[in-house]
Amino acid sequence: MLTLTPSAQTAVRRFIKGAEEPVAGLRISVTGGGCSGMQYGMALEGQAKADDVVIEAGAVKVFVDPHSAPLLAGVIVDFRDGMDGSGFAFTNPNAAASCGCGKSFSA
User: Fold this and answer.
1) Rounded to two decimals, what is the model's pTM?
2) How many structural domains is the chain composed of?
């Protein structure tokens, strides 16, 4: 389904550790918007929803809603830290086109 690289797992664990509220996992979703038509969303969550797909990525639990699951199949999430900035990057084999920012795509 969806894969978090070791670098992404480390970054998520760091964000979870620094959260003010208890965190059960990371929600990754796809919504309409962005410059290519669909955009990725990420948020720390206190618990999974009843219909979520729950993915174990090392020590990190990832929650994916049923609508987003097919669009995230095979996606690799990485965390990059470099001179030009840092952040999560998505490699999506389902994307027909991606935006230059890497935050949106079209299927």
Assistant:
1) 0.85
2) 1
